[in-house]
Amino acid sequence: MQDLIKLNRDIFDMANEENNLYKAPEGLSEGLIRQISKDKNEPEWMLNKRLRALELFNQTPLPNWGPDLSKLDLSKISFYVRPDSVKNSRSWDEVPQDIKKTFERLGIPEAEREALAGAGAQYDSNVVYHNLKKEWDDKGVIFEDCDVALQKYPKLMKEYFMNKCIPINDHKFIMLHASVWSGGTFIYVPKNVRVDIPLQAYFRMNSKKMGQFEHTLIIADEGSEVSYIEGCSSPVYNPNSIHAGCVEIYVKKNARVRYSSIENWSKNTYNLNTKRAIVEENGIIEWISGNMGSGVTMLYPSSILKGRNSKADHISIAFAGKGQNQDTGAKVFHLNVNTSSNIQSKSISIDGGTTSYRGLVKINKGCKGSRSSVECDALMIDNKSISNTYPFIDVKEKNVDVAHEATVGKISDEQIFYLMSRGLNEEQAKQIVVSGFIEPIIKQLPLEYAAELNKLIELEMEGSLG
C-alpha cells in the first residue's frame, strides 16, 4: 500500500513582503483603466474596449443565482499591481530574487527544464517570465503573454481577443475582466503543427486585497495540436481577493487542444473565472480541471461545438472544506450534426463544505446524430457537508443520444471497517476511499499536477476527519 504523502502547505500560503513598483488605489475608475492602458502602450482600440467594458460593468448588477457574493466588496480591491519586475524576462536569472524564490518553491522553472516545451510565470498583474524552446519557435509556434502579443501580433489579437468566443458583454465579471485584464498567455499553433510536449503557465497572487485578471487566448489552426497546463495559487490573508480570469480557445478544423488546470487559490479568494472554446469541424477540446482552495468558486468551462463531428470532453474534480462553496460544472452547445460531448464531474465535500454541479447541455434542432453523456458523482465525508446538482438539458432534435447520471454518497462504515482491519487508522482509511473515488480524474491530469492534487486533498482532509 502506497505511503500517504503529507504536504507542507507553506509552499502555497507563504507570502512575500509586498515590494511593488505600483499598487493602484482600491476601487475601479475610468482613470485607472486609462492608466493601465497607457502603462502597457496599448492601441486605441484596446483602450476603447476597456472603457466600454467598464461602462457595461457599472450598469450590470451582481448575479442573483449561485453562491452568495454579498461579502465581495469590489471597492476594497486593488485592480492593478505591478511587482518589482519591470520586464518580461526570457532568462530566469533576470527575475527578481524574491519573486524567483516563490516560483522555485512551486516548481517553476524546474518543470520547464524537465518536461515542458515552454513556461510562463505571472506574479500579481505582471508576467515576469516567459520562454518557448527553440524547436517550437522554429516551427512557427507563438507562446507569449497577452501584453507582449498585443504589441507583436496586433492583427491576431484584434481579430480574436474578446470578440467571437467571449464578448465583453457576456456577464458582469467578464465586463470587469475586460476593463482591467493584465498579462496571461497567448498561444498560436500553425497549421498541421503538433506540439507534443505541454506548454505551461503559473499565476500567483501575492498582494493583499487585490484582483488578478490574466487573459488566456489559444488559437489552434487547422490540423494542429497543443496541450496547455495552468496552475494558480495565492497565500492566505484575512481581506478578500478576487480572481476573474478569462480563457478563450479556438479549435480549428481537425485540430485538438487539451487544457488542464489546477486552481488552488486561498480561502479568502473569490474565484470567478470564465472559460470557453469554439470547436470547428472534426475538432476536439479537452478540459481537465481541479478546483479547490478558494472560498467561493463559480466556474463552468463551456464548449461551442460549431463544426460537424466536433467533440468536447469535460473532466473535473472539485473539493470543498470548511467555509468553502465550490459551484462548478460545464456547458456544451451542440450546433451541428454528429457532434459529441462527454462530461464527467466528481466532487468531495467535508467539514461543512458545499459543492454544486451546475451544467447545461443544449442540442439544437437539426443536429442529427449528436451524442452527449453527463456523469456527476459526489462524495460527502460527514453529515454536515452539502452537495447539490443542477443539471439542465435542452434537446430540440429527436435523432440524438443523451444520457445523464448523478450519484451522491457517503463513505460507508463497512469500507472503513475493512480498511482498518488491514492496519490503517480511520483517517488513513478515509483517505484511501477518497483516492479511489477521484482516481478516474487523477489519471487524466499531467503527472506533476496529479501528484499535487492528490497531496492537496490529503492535506485538506488531515485533521478534519473523525
From TrEMBL:
**Residue ranges of the SUF system FeS cluster assembly SufBD N-terminal domain?**
128-200
Name the family the entry cites: Belongs to the iron-sulfur cluster assembly SufBD family.
Provide one Gene Ontology biological process annotation: iron-sulfur cluster assembly
Q: Which NCBIfam families match?
A: sufB
Protein name as annotated? FeS assembly protein SufB
InterPro entries registered for this protein in UniProt: Fe-S_cluster_assembly_SufBD (IPR055346), SUF_FeS_clus_asmbl_SufB (IPR010231), SUF_FeS_clus_asmbl_SufBD_core (IPR000825), SUF_FeS_clus_asmbl_SufBD_sf (IPR037284), SufBD_N (IPR045595)
Q: Which residues form the SUF system FeS cluster assembly SufBD core domain?
A: 203-437
